[in-house]
Give the backbone structure.
Amino acid sequence: MADTAHTSHQGATSGPQPGDQPSGPQRSGLLSAGPQLGMPVMAGSAVLFSLMSFLIPLTHGVSAFIIVSARFVVGILVIVCAAVVTRTPLKAVNKWWLVARGVIGASSVYLLFRGIMNLGLGQGTILNYTYPIFAALLAPVMIGEKLTWDVLASGLLSFVGIWLVVSPGPISSINTETLLALLGGVLSGIAVVAIKKLRETETPSIIYLAQCVFGLLVVGWPTATSSFAFGALQWLILLALGIVATAAQLTMTWAYKHVPATEGSLLAFLTPVLNVLLGVLVFGEQMRPMMLVGSALVLACCGYIAFREKILRLFG
């Protein structure tokens, strides 16, 4: 979830592309409404991402590979149909970066879904939403961005929070599913850095399409060999999940054209907060006090990195 949400964030911050804006009175009306609707639409997108996550535990007996494939198939259909209707060509420039972003991003989505299914809605989401930390730490290596002392300190402090979320006990008590969920956060961070590089040459639609296409290639074989022996209700949930995920992605992409990236990112952090609450209230998940402290610490560190420039300006 978290990987797809940030994809839209990075993909849309450069604003509308030439030819994206309508002309005449229609253009004027859309531009005047954009700033007013941007923040509410962004908040709605965060709620949609949380709804997508909420649907995952309801797919009883369905393989995580099938759930991920459903999301990718719907995403491809929506993007291709939109391109056909609007007669917009889907052209790729930086193909190797698109392949890398697609494969890594798809793997992170699978690990997010798997984490939610095996660890619970709250813990699975929190571990994936560590991606801003890993993106900040990996960007200097991947694309040569400068790593400052405060970002490094935030990264180290966030690992304390991760430890409290995972297991405030001996290392031997950490299980494989927990490590895989955290790996999803690492891969999401790598995908975010790749998206930042790709925005130099690619449109948001192409970047998202790459995730969906290469995602199907990654999970295609295990999906084909999975059991499809589940009822009509599960099929409806899969369809709803794919539609909700695509709607969340597209609304976030639109909103980031009309709101500053920092304010938009703050609203994106509604998703893990909502997921923790839903996990406790709906699914009866147990959140130990130390897990809540660790979750707050992780989100605080991620929030600092997301809004670092504004915070530094505020305090001089």
